[in-house]
Amino acid sequence: MTRKLAMGLSVLMVLFLLGGGLSAQAPVSTEKVTLKIGYQEGGYGIDFLTYAIRTFQNKYPNVTIKLTNSPDLGTVVSTLAQAGNNADMFDIFTGEGPYAAAGKLEPINDILESTFPDNPKLKVKDGLYKGVYETLSKNTAGEIFRLPRAIYVGGLFYDKAFFQKNKWNENPKTYAEFLKLMDSIKAKNVVPMTFSGMYNYIGFSVWWNKAFELAELNGTLDKVKGDFMAYRSPRYDTPEMRTLYTRLYEMGKKGYFSKGLSALDHTASQMLMLQNKVALVSTADWVENEMKSSGAVPENFQWGFMTIPMGSKATDTIWLNNGDSDSAVIWKDKPELSKAWSKEFLKWTLTVDVQRNMAKVAGAMPVRAAFYDSKTNLDSLTSSQKAISSYMASHKTRLENNFTVTPKVGPSDAQADKLFVESVPLICQGELDPLPVLKQAEALFQKGLEEGKALQ
Amino acid sequence: MTSKGSKGLVFKKHEAVFAWSVLALPLLFYVVFWLLPNLLSVVYSFFYWDGLTPPIWVGLSNYFKIFEDPFLFRALSHNLFLLVFVPVLTVIISLLLSYGLVNKSFWENKLFQVLYFVPNVLAAVVVSLLWSFIYNGNFGILNAILIGLGFKEFQDFYWLASGKTALWALLPVYIWANVGFQVLIYVNAMKAIPSSIYESAELEGATSFQKMTRITLPLMKNILKVTTLFLILMTFKAYDIVLVLTGGGPAGATDVTGYYMFGMAFSFNRGTGSSGHDYGYASTIGMLLFVILIAVKLLLDRIKDDDIEY
Question: Residue A123 is part of which domain span?
Fold first, then answer.
């Protein structure tokens, strides 16, 4: 009888354990573990992260998290990485840097395939904001290393009241309509566009994303995007890039861009727009927070958002430049237990509660799609983010982060990039023909790849 | 027990222990934080190294590459331009200001000396930002003055955005940032020259210009040589002003070797979102810079030091 009872209890126990194991949301050992997080402190502050840490530790008391925040975290990480002591390195930190290409980061594909802590029925990859999952950069093996927590969207920002006062078209749907808008702005003796040439801020509106937009229209998207992602030639001297930069050059010759682009930093260019000397400035959604501190933004200022459509039909997809404004990666050479808990923590930062707090205290644009389902949540977004959200809701858009993982390449590759980036302001002012520049950049790019082959 | 120092000096044991105890820490810092990194740079110049993966031996290929690198030669030509103007103008302006401070007994002299020195206590970033406001085409004070004087064509003119003016516009920044320190040195050097020499010259009927060129400058020759050398080194090595003020633009018109080297090591590929660190190639550029500066030093050493006794 006792034996039968013992057998029965054993079977029950096994069934219980199996059942428990299957239903558990965090199948991670509850052994005590300490995680080190390095955070690049910037405009978002750290309050949202300390909130995430506090709530996570409340739920999982066995986990202790030590946070190091620095405005120059990249240098700290770089020093730790070069020292080669994995025990000293952060478990989680901001910024993929060159570490993915060097094989130093843990792939996070399994996080994307798992479910949210606050919605066990929804996979993470399916619960991210419109188009975010598709923009996550992968290496050639399909591995993803960086998990975004918040995104930025770049484009052309403007003063809504100024546009409405002048009755300018706030919604150009085709390239022809956009050019018409430029003419109508210029007719009022206002310069249509500006950007920081010092820091290549036109890239927030027009970069590879627009070459892809043109490629989609030409039916060559797979080829162009494939070459881009695989870091193959042609990269600069493609029909799409030639069309794109010739368009900018033509706009420059017509005086659609402000003078002195090369000398403008982002604050100076944004100031020109706030002064209504220029109608549109190329930047990203953080512009609102950034300029708030300058004291130059009037009360009740309403930000507007648009981008340059490349197509001729209102139904063509408009490619927007985006990236993660806050993201995290996991260091690969760490104990399995630490990595498992690091992944659990990263998922925690995507819960609606943490994301809501992030929008509220950091002014960030969350990546969790469910955040945008609530009107209260939407109201907590900044005016520039609302303008983007509304633009994306009323247009057929696609996000693109223009990111590729670089293989080993020689110095000529960096020279190609340098030549291209430093030429853009002069092209936009109609002072430099883009075609020879693209040709020269392509030649340098090819040379860089050749130099790289010797390093494989 | 005694230790023998140079020139046959003999130290007692406790003196030697004291000397070593004082010197050990600075020596350690010198070796670890200066000598070793510099020696490692020589080693890295023979490798491709991204700072993370194991370095790959490339032999002399980085050295061959620098001689066919048009961006490097463009940057070097800008250094050369700065080298022609910055040390010469800085020395001339500093000498004139120092001469005024020493020979004219204005009650504000102390104040002037402090004012001249102010840029030296400011970080290069602050100096650069100040000048970026001065040169700004939208609200800059320089354009305001020029327009006030009737030069309307300077409306919305961006000094740092034009290939014709950007490099020239760097000159006042470099000079302004360096004059104060030179003035400090020259004032003290001038004060050390015995007044009896000037008094004798005055009795002989020497003019102020003659006193400057026949007495002051010859007696300051050694100091001028050293300060010029430091100015040359600074002009060649510094890139912080370029980094903040122009970012090397427009279209590379203000790129300098130090900034180009920094970019190769840390920050290029910013446009494509990827990041490539090439410490090996950057170190090779550093080696070239090292050779150039040593050559300049040797060239300056050919100017003989004078044994000056007052």
Answer: 29-149+326-380
* Model confidence pLDDT, tens digit, residues A317-352: 999 998 888 999 999 999 999 999 999 999 999 999
Question: Looking at the structure, do residues A192 and A210 belong to the same domain, yes or no?
Answer: yes
From A154's Cα to the closest Cα of chain B, the distance in A is: 14
Q: Cβ contacts (< 8 Å) between A415 and chain B: which residues?
A: 69, 71, 268
State the DSSP code for A165.
H
* Residue in A101, A103, A421 nearest the CB of B270: A421
DSSP-derived pairing of the beta strands A147-159 and A318-330: antiparallel
Judge if A255 and A276 occupy the same domain. Answer: yes
- Residue entry with tokens 């100024």: A162
- The one-letter amino acid code at A311 reads G
Rounded CA gap, B276 and A15, in Å? 53
Helices B109-121, B166-192: inter-axial angle, 10-degree rounding: 130
What's the confidence (pLDDT) of residue A7? Answer: 60
In this structure, the answer to whether residues A244 and A290 fall within a common structural domain is: yes
A102 chain-B contacts, CB cut-off 8 A: 50, 52-53
- Would you tell me the crossing angle of helices A208-218 and A239-253 to the nearest 10 degrees? 120
Class of domain B63-301: mainly alpha
Q: Are B289 and A419 in contact (CB under 8 A)?
A: no
The answer to whether residues B272 and A417 touch, using CB atoms and an 8 Å cutoff, is: yes
Instruction: Determine which helix (DSSP H) or strand (DSSP E) holds B286, and give its type and residue range.
Output: helix B279-301
Q: Identity (one letter) of the amino acid at A25?
A: Q
Query: Which residue of A264, A268, A414 is in closest CB contact with B276?
Result: A414
In a domain, A392, yes or no: no
Residue of B nearest to A102 (CA): B53
**Contact (Cβ atoms closer than 8 angstroms) between residue A213 and residue A319:** yes
Instruction: Name the amino acid, one letter, at B87.
Output: P
Question: CB contacts < 8 Å between A and B, how many?
Answer: 142
DSSP state, B249? -
Domain boundaries, chain B: 2-44, 63-301
> Minimum mean pLDDT among A260-274, A393-407, B71-85: which range?
A393-407
Task: Please tell me which residue of chain A has the smallest CA distance to B68.
Answer: A412
Q: Please check whether residues A348 and A301 belong to one and the same domain.
A: no
- Categorise residue A167: left if φ over 0, alpha if ψ from -120 to 50, beta otherwise: left
Q: Is residue A136 part of a domain?
A: yes
Return the SS3 of A169.
Answer: coil
Q: Distances in Å between the alpha carbon of A355 and those of A146, A311, A362?
A: 17, 35, 10
Taking only the tens place, the pLDDT of each residue in A117-136 is 999 999 999 999 888 898 88
Kind plus residue range of the DSSP H or E element containing A37 = strand A33-40
Other C-beta atoms lying within 10 Å of the C-beta of residue A276: 14
Cis ω before A234 (30° cut-off from 0): yes
Are A153 and A384 in contact by the 8 Å Cβ rule? The answer is no
Put simply, the answer to whether A405 touches B274 (Cβ < 8 Å) is yes
Residue A292: inside a domain:
yes
Q: Does A230 touch chain B if contact means CB atoms closer than 8 Å? A: no
Q: Residue A108's domain is classified under what CATH number?
A: 3.40.190.10
Q: Are residues A313 and A351 in the same domain?
A: no
Percent of chain B with pLDDT over 90: 47
Closest CA to A72 of B247, B122, B266: B266
Residue A22 has pLDDT above 50, yes or no: no
Query: How far apart are alpha carbons A421 and B71 in whole angstroms?
Result: 14
CA atoms within 13 A on the CB side of B299: 9
Q: Give yes or no: residues A139 and A123 share one domain.
A: yes
The span from the CA of A257 to the CA of A248, in Å, is 9
Q: In this structure, are A39 and A128 located in the same domain? A: yes
Q: Is residue A244 part of a domain?
A: yes
Of A3-12, A107-116, A156-165, the range with the lowest mean pLDDT is A3-12
Neighboring chain B residues of A207 at a CB cutoff of 8 Å: 271
Domain count, chain A: 2
ipTM surpassing 0.85? no
